[in-house]
Amino acid sequence: MSEEQKQESSLSKPEAKAVPFTVVVLGLASLLTDVSTEMIHAVLPNFMSTVLKIGFAEIGFIEGLAETVASLLKIFSGALSDRIGKRKGLLLVGYGLSALVKPLFLLADSAAIVLAARAADRVGKGIRGAPRDALVADVTTSANRGRAYGLRQSLDTTGAVIGPMVALLVMWYTSSNYQITFALAIIPAVLVLFLLYFGVKEPSQTRPLSQDKIFSFKNLEKLKSDMPPQFFGLVAVVLLFSLANSSDAFLILRARDCGLPIALCPLVLVAINISYALSAYPAGIVSDKIGHGPMLCFSFVLYAAVYAGFAVLGAGSGSALPMLLLCLVYGLHLGFSQGVLSALVSHLIPTHLRGTAFGIINFAVGLALLPASLLTGYLYEHWGALYAFSTCAVLASIAALCLAFQLPGLSKVNLTKNNDL
Predict the structure, then answer these.
(1) 3-state SS string over 99-137?
(2) Is the pLDDT at 12 greater than 50, yes or no?
(3) Rounded distance, CA 420 to CA 349, Å?
(4) Half-sphere exposure of 385 (CA within 13 A, CB side)
(5) Is residue 12 part of a domain?
(6) What is the Cβ-side half-sphere exposure of residue 234, based on CA atoms within 13 angstroms?
(7) Half-sphere exposure of residue 83, counting CA atoms within 13 Å on the CB side?
(8) How far is Cα 265 from Cα 415, in angstroms, rounded to an integer?
(9) What is the pLDDT of residues 136-169, one digit of tens each?
(10) How many domains does the chain have?
(11) What is the pTM of this model?
(12) Would you state the pLDDT for residue 386?
């Protein structure tokens, strides 16, 4: 019997389903970080477009490259956290770097500085992402893992609601003063470090993977044999879907095209993240009952439908309200997919390889983010929103179909063999 099985069998039913305090702390850290990040993200596309006069294609490059850096780094941080058997140190480094570079946005007077600031901020995200997701799996069991990921994601997204709302108020009352918004975003980023240092406790049974080099050919072969083939099929589907998943910066620019005033454009992220925050935790609970795979497949279908809606919206103020309503539905896609995907990965993978698995998934996402945003930016600039968003909808539909064919195989994975129930 695995350590996780022993731990779960010793708990009463209510205790087995309770969310550990460490998960709550990680969720609050995500909340504060998203308040900081989304305050900047909510105004940055219009700052680049109107103040720095950067074109849509260049915005796509900046956003795509920044997110790609974050995702590619997760494969290294996740594998490193497995090897050393510790997650907390990498969390502090990742969150600390993001806090350290926030002042760069105050100095931004060119595309190069914005790119440097966004990339450095996302490097921090890349360092902390996989160890954080693995730590959630470390301190939970199969009975409460879906709701734990859902709770962390809901708290994360609550911050993503608060951040744009604060940005909206600051922009409104300061006549669109970007610098004040950027300055205020530094405060919650710093508070996160104190919360993590004093609040996060790692489980004592966390152990190193091995003393081998993390990405030696010998170790890669071992990883391939230890991970079920269904996991690599899932990676391929996530890679395909990520080609459709361009930066949300284009949604802010789309809202402006639909007649939403610049000072009110943060409402796009508010609408997305309100429904995201409200749906993530219930989606985690439901996915524990019906299966994580079907829930993820439905979220892909929902994404395709919403992006088809973004494509056919007209220009002018009459389309602003439908745009915001579609953003609410888009938030449901995020709630039904983000924590659910993490829970699905954790069920497929042995305990000691979870950090590495999350890193591989995020590596696949990272491979697609830059071409996805470049393609969307190019189509948007040269062909218009109809072609840009329709292309995303078609790719997401294909990914949903591919995942649907994989669902029977995902349900047959021997979870007991993978140190899980």
Answers:
(1) HHHCCHHHHCCCHHHHHHHHHHHHHHHHHHHHHHHHHHH
(2) no
(3) 9
(4) 19
(5) yes
(6) 31
(7) 16
(8) 45
(9) 888 887 777 778 877 887 788 788 889 989 998 9
(10) 1
(11) 0.70
(12) 92
